[in-house]
Amino acid sequence: GRNWEGFGSDPVLQAVASAETIRGIQENGVIATAKHYVLNEQEHYGQPLEWGISNAMASNIDDRTLREVYIWPFAESVRAGVGSVMCAYQMVNNSYSCGNSLLLNGILKDELGFQGFVQSDWWAQQAGVSTALAGLDMTMPGPGPRPSPGVSYWGSNLAIAALNTSVPMERLNDMATRIVAAWYQLGQDSWPKPPPDGDGGPNFSSWTREKIGRLHHGSNDDDATGVVNKFINAQSEGDDAHLHVARRIAAEGTILLKNEGGILPLSRNGRSRNAGLYRVGIYGEDAGPGKGPNFCRDRACNQGTLASGWGSGAVEFPYLIPPGEALDREFNNDTVELSLYYKNEVADRDLKDKDLCIVFANSNGGEGFVADGDIRGDRNDLFLQKDGDRLVEHVASKCGDGSGETIVVIHAVGPVIVESWVDYPGIKAIVLANLPGQESGDALADFLFGDVDACGRLPYTMGKSLDDYGPGARVLCESQRPVPQKDFSHGLYTDYRYFDKHNITPRYEFGYGLSYTTFRLSNLIVKPLQDRTPLPAPRPEPRVSPPSYNDEIPPPKDALFPKGFRRLSDYIYPYISSVKEVTQGPYEYPQGYNITQEPSQAGGGEGGNPSLFEPFVNVSVVLANTGPRTGKEVVQVYVSFPENVTDSQPLADGEKSNSTGNHTEPYNPLVTIEFPVRVLRNFEKVELASGEWTTVNMSLTRKDLSYWSTRQQNWMMPTAGAFKIWVGRSSRDLPLVGKF
């Protein structure tokens, strides 16, 4: 589904990349949104209307897995100061994400200290009053339930709810404060005002690409037009042009999976084994331009080279450089004869005289509101699409009449299975180019010709079959229940953690990637900076008090539409049409309702209790480039928790857990805590010239060395036993290990 829009399968990797992305966006005055909160792990059954069902699916999960795997990236997003968080379509433990008070009020706003606003995914709001009380601050796009133009759970209904006390004024003020606070925080109050007071406001329209367009596109009542697209060049020019960054990121993110005989990097002059020109063939639809990069709505088709997944997260390409075009330009045509075959059907005669064959294949997926054939967002399997496996096998077996060399280039939204051809003797190199964006061809040329080092690393595990990933990896595609149920029974064991637990050998492990040079790691030193204690420091007192407002309910007449106000049909307004819509008197909440909740001891700052993020252990290692050229290595730090850890303070008799899980079994007085074999906790990419060495220092925080205790409802650090600290190049290439 939409996992291509994220950064990988590990919570720490997701967290670091999310935080850096947020900082980059918001440094430019744009509010970033972290989404989709939370457990939006598949497209099937996300939006009920798209699937012809009454209710969205429920993602059912235990409390510890929720915190340690799925909430972790959101915590780091909040620490980075994200202005907005988007709640998801589906339910969590059978409560809709955008109406789940534990997720929004309890975890996000209290425990994680989120200061911005929660907005719904488009039409994800499933109720009115209850979502406001649960912590939703903004409904998008406004109407609901879909399709219902001009009708909203909120709008005038929210005004009525505030006037009749079902939504306290304190909550309404909080909603508005959070939205406006993000606006001020990003400096948007200093921007030019929109017409008629200035020439600011939105500078582009999602409705049209023309300069002049309708000003009120959502209603048929008004044909007023004006400038709606100012064609601002957001990509800059010259040395600051976006294309340079896009090209570098795409090249450095490309992963070298196989490089037999050092065939890569290539020479632009070729390396003919015989007299005459070096003959190179480029094969596959994925190498070519197809019908253009924006041919399909929301990129929801697999044609031409794959540079993006599909859905609302996809964008209009300003241009897209196909790999075949870039390679044709880069090879020296005085010494190399290049032939382009942008088809997935290749005749033997187009292969038999080639010295080198570069074959392209892909695997696409995206958002569930649009389909490509029988792929409705989620991929049906992990194989290459459009007969990609057959294409690779044919090219590899027939290249040079069986004596040529083949390089396979894959563009994909996620892991693919390569078992049917990975060991073909003619296949000398396998390159995973991911989803490279507009600079696809030029970035790949930089990689293949060695203008940049091969320094990308796998953000997920590539198994040998779908079964290798366990039952939790399978998409819930069929359900006869009123609410489709997806149980996250895999717990903490996602991706490489599952492989490690079940001793499954992957084809290529998480964090793996070859380089054009060689590196050596040595001299590991693990230095504790603090003494171990079970719990973080007590929650700190607030640095400032919440803003104080007049929470007195105004007279209903103050909420009437202003006299002479022109209403446009299908637009949503906060005003009411008549005071008769308001029922007087206090709202009767259900028995046991209480707005006073004890603050979480895991909270107290943005992202959580500030002491969770203090450096607790310093890890230093010497990295040396022992190869022939400059290169970049990704030094990775993994942690194994002590053995025989038990929850230090068992529940008292009769005490109940505050877990989010659906557990009904009795609690044992003391529970042994289970951990994955090892978990990623830090990493750093380091560039070194040939023969150069450096000391790499990385820290581990208290949170890195803690687990979520469902009994304590806090992060607990084992105080007995030894932690193991592993340092290496991937989740299974860890030559150095230390203890503390």
Automatic annotation (TrEMBL):
PANTHER family recorded: BETA-GLUCOSIDASE, BETA-GLUCOSIDASE E-RELATED
Localization terms from the record: Cell membrane
Keyword flag Transport: no
Classification via SMART domains: Fn3_like (SM01217)
GO molecular function list: beta-glucosidase activity
Catalytic activity: Hydrolysis of terminal, non-reducing beta-D-glucosyl residues with release of beta-D-glucose
Species this protein is from: Coccidioides immitis
Entry superkingdom: Eukaryota
Pathway annotation from the record: Glycan metabolism; cellulose degradation
Residues of the Fibronectin type III-like domain: 633-731
Major localization class: membrane
A Gene Ontology biological process term: glucan catabolic process
Keywords, alphabetical: Carbohydrate metabolism, Cell membrane, Glycoprotein, Glycosidase, Hydrolase, Membrane, Polysaccharide degradation, Signal-anchor, Transmembrane, Transmembrane helix
Family named by the database record: Belongs to the glycosyl hydrolase 3 family.
Example of a GO cellular component annotation carried by this entry: plasma membrane
Keyword rRNA-binding (UniProt): no
Protein function: Beta-glucosidases are one of a number of cellulolytic enzymes involved in the degradation of cellulosic biomass. Catalyzes the last step releasing glucose from the inhibitory cellobiose.
Residue stretches of biased makeup (Pro residues): 535-545
Name of this chain's protein: Probable beta-glucosidase E
Membrane topology note: Single-pass type II membrane protein
EC number assigned by the record: 3.2.1.21
Region of interest called Disordered, as start-end residue ranges on this chain: 531-556, 646-667
Pfam family, one: Fn3-like
